[in-house]
Amino acid sequence: xxxxxxxxxxxxxxxxxxxxxxxxxxxxxxxxxxxxxxxxxxxxxxxxxxxxxxxxxxxxxxxxxxxxxxxxxxxxxxxxxxxxxxxxxxxxxxxxxxxxxxxxxxxxxxxxxxxxxxxxxxxxxxxxxxxxxxxxxxxxxxxxxxxxxxxxxxxxxxxxxxxxxxxxxxxxxxxxxxxxxxxxxxxxxxxxxxxxxxxxxxxxxxxxxxxxxxxxxxxxxxxxxxxxxxxxxxxxxxxxxxxxxxxxxxxxxxxxxxxxxxxxxxxxxxxxxxxxxxxxxxxxxxxxxxxxxxxxxxxxxxxxxxxxxxxxxxxxxxxxxxxxxxxxxxxxxxxxxxxxxxxxxxxxxxxxxxxxxxxxxxxxxxxxxxxxxxxxxxxxxxxxxxxxxxxxxxxxxxxxxxxxxxxxxxxxxxxxxxxxxxxxxxxxxxxxxxxxxxxxxxxxxxxxxxxxxx
Amino acid sequence: xxxxxxxxxxxxxxxxxxxxxxxxxxxxxxxxxxxxxxxxxxxxxxxxxxxxxxxxxxxxxxxxxxxxxxxxxxxxxxxxxxxxxxxxxxxxxxxxxxxxxxxxxxxxxxxxxxxxxxxxxxxxxxxxxxxxxxxxxxxxxxxxxxxxxxxxxxxxxxxxxxxxxxxxxxxxxxxxxxxxxxxxxxxxxxxxxxxxxxxxxxxxxxxxxxxxxxxxxxxxxxxxxxxxxxxxxxxxxxxxxxxxxxxxxxxxxxxxxxxxxxxxxxxxxxxxxxxxxxxxxxxxxxxxxxxxxxxxxxxxxxxxxxxxxxxxxxxxxxxxxxxxxxxxxxxxxxxxxxxxxxxxxxxxxxxxxxxxxxxxxxxxxxxxxxxxxxxxxxxxxxxxxxxxxxxxxxxxxxxxxxxxxxxxxxxxxxxxxxxxxxxxxxxxxxxxxxxxxxxxxxxxxxxxxxxxxx
Lengths: 454, 454
Known about the structure:
2 copies of one chain form a homodimer.
Chain A: H1 14-24, H2 32-51, H3 56-65, E1 74-75, E2 82-83, H4 85-97, E3 104-105, H5 112-126, H6 130-151, H7 154-158, H8 162-165, H9 167-178, H10 183-194, H11 208-228, H12 244-247, H13 255-258, E4 270-271, H14 282-295, E5 302-309, H15 313-317, H16 325-328, H17 332-342, H18 352-356, H19 358-365, E6 367-371, E7 380-386, E8 391-396, H20 409-420, H21 426-437, H22 446-450
Helix pairs in contact in A: 1-10, 2-4, 2-6, 2-20, 3-4, 4-5, 4-11, 5-6, 5-9, 5-11, 6-9, 9-10, 9-11, 10-11, 14-17, 17-19
């Protein structure tokens, strides 16, 4: 199906238009709000990756691939090892996504996991400045999200993990910008990316889910490096009959790739998760935290809790009494219980130890959840009935982390510190945060990267 | 659409069945004809790769990626460099396919280019025997071709380059066999392969076409190495609703993957090209060579030539007067002219020099080609009218290189020598051929690999 009016998809020429936009973009034309958003995304990304750096998924990938690492060009975040930039991009892409705590564009894709690992590695190796990195990052996200939305949601519904399939374009575009590719080379970089585009949703629940953004980071970076040396691809990889859009979707709309390009920036629609579980339970967690704070709520005073939620919540997170930390992430009951007991719902509250505690299990058993199809994804209602008969209520219309109610910079710092507390010392964490907030002042991104080492 | 009768695709469990077959297969159960075919495929593959080792496509990939090579674990064929095994698999996969002179399964896929580069590199590094390598190769091709045919031709028609999309499974299966993965690990290797499956036909005519088998070799090898260390994927990557078969095709037939598994071997249906151009013109080249040989045909004696060919020939190779070597490959006129003048149609006859020669151009102008839709793909008719008025004819029903009329071992040796003449010295070429023919006697494949170095 062709959404372009009076123009065939093949005539659209969007690969070249996108390439030209990326090549010709000047840093000074970026809105300052978008540049600031980049710092927020970087703080969030590095916190997630460093916090997950010793996860089994990362350890197993390291064990398998370290024998093939090249020169130690770039840092593996939150670990002591260094690697060639292609492997650093892969491993850091995996660790950024493995907790599923990384950023989310409000419509689709985890934007940073495929892009930042690729260009941080390249920038560290080639000593690019913070301004150059931020510029490349903003443009990479722009390419990635626009290409994703040109096939979304049908492409995702069919079974493609869009963070992988679109992420590879983001990495290629961003790395290509750092490498100062010309327009023809940039079309090749996008083409070499297109022909590597992959990642199946069947892998959700396995280690391959976080492999996808890592693989996209590595493949996109390689695409830009190959294009730089003259390795050719089709220059019409997005719109051609046998190109990405038409082969990997039946609802490709090329106009999405170029409409208002340079006017609206997709990074400004980026969201960060305050809680270490699925977005659909964020509203009721937020409500429980507010009730706890306003009413000094304690578990022992509670007779029962009732939540009213949107249609997906019980389907995705309906486990009443989870047995493991991972199951806890798929239990709206557990998420609400820890919010009330601990005043938090971070990685620590989704450990197997906490999941198995009797006070948490008791509170979970007092919670009832009712689905109301009119409740929106980031909305929720919580009513607590106390043993003394009082009833207290909270309605959250836009959960913390939504575009309407974003995490503050302080919230993002707190999340970063919580994720990295056992890994970085306070001095390094402070310095790293300071460099992230002031990244556009850095002459060489390598100084920031060295602070991610343990 | 579901071709399985009375059984849903998701119930098919073919990923596990295929994994189990590969894991449990014993070398001694392979038919001896299949083991011999492996040597023929290896001679053909190494000849193509060594002959193309200095092609721009290979040079540009080397220039871009050499800065990231790890330890020199494996030889880059036909060159002096060594690389880590993942990069060796990539580069050798590119060089095997770049001339489009490598092997072709009679229905679909270039079987060797994604598989042999992966397992030769692994076998060289870990010092596996020739028997282990051949066993892994046969099974890798089996997995690759069966998975390809489970979605062919719809998957290819939609725009997927099936040598890339199916090749990654072949590399993973073969490397996994060498690594002695257990059944669960083998299902993971196939899953990590599935989620990397990629390659768009839009790239035909660019350097990315030969990137596809290289990328498949590298990705499949990484998949097996990761699975060995416990990196998990879905164990139902082929048949699941959001797995390879249903996401990347609308005509997936899982039964093709397991029917008569271990009874018929797909490698026995492998074909080798005698001529350095598309298969569709092989029959008329063969006819011209026969006429030249039988009648001592000389260009200066010819008044005109008429060929009758199948329906695709003019569409694919209709350039009447090509200007470059590459255009020469897409000219049935040129292919016939060089066959008559040189008695050969190898790489040398498709050089730009030969294409521009006046005697060749003159003969091309005397050739007329007529399409007859009843003529089969590997069939052709040639009639030559001599200046003395005589008319001589040849009908080729199955061109040299077809399954009905395969290249002999001597033909394959001649092709190998012709491709490698300017690169290997005669002594090394002789030794290399001897080791290929006797590969199952080798204790360590590394000795053969070292002979591919210059």
